Amino acid sequence: MAGLFDEESGPGTEDDGLFERPLFGEANDNPYGAGLAEGIAAGTRIATEDGWRRVETINPGERVLTFDHGPRRVQQIMRATLSDGCSHRPPHMLPLEVPPGVLGNAEAMMLLPEQIVLIESDLAETLYDDPFALIPAAALEGYRGVARIAPQQSFEVIFLQFEGEEVVYANGAGMILCGSADGTSLDALMEGRGDYRVLPLDKARRLVEALIEDERAE
């Protein structure tokens, strides 16, 4: 899969082995091993300074609205294609369909399993001392109808990169994390070395399971 990325701006034109490292869920026990399991699916609407735009129409230099810092300029964009209707991918690598309202999204949206999303919950504060939790989308499976899907055709995946990591608005109030042009890794984010810290998959699943149980008890 090397060579799928197409740099539109910023330094470098090589994929730096992005697709050569083990994928999510493989035997090295690194749940965030790189692969085409993150990024924003084409068709997702992102809040920009000029209104809602499909992510694939955003260009480097344009400003996107962010959760913490207001309008921020997109420094770099990378693109890839998820092909073959995902039929060749193991089940845990399939994208997830998120029904309307689950993440504050006004319409259904597709998330790749390693894409990081922001959720707000009193339970997150109880468990991890912060009402805002960044978790991999894979942890949402089974929550409010979130389920794996196997798209029947190829689709484009977009990577928006900013000067630093930023949380952007998707399809309404849904919030997803975008990386920085300096290439800060997810491992660094989980260790608190970036602007944000991501919950490891086991803790993220624990939080989602608690949310499910809490809603069942209501």
From TrEMBL:
Pfam families with a match to the protein in the record: Hint_2
Coiled coil: none
Biased composition (Acidic residues): 1-17
Chain residue ranges for the region called Disordered: 1-24
Top-level taxonomic group: Bacteria
InterPro entries tied to this protein: Hedgehog/Intein_dom (IPR028992), Hint_dom_sf (IPR036844)
Hedgehog/Intein (Hint) domain sequence ranges: 41-173
Protein name per UniProt: Hint domain-containing protein
Species the sequence originates in: Rhodobacter flavimaris
Species lineage: Bacteria, Pseudomonadati, Pseudomonadota, Alphaproteobacteria, Rhodobacterales
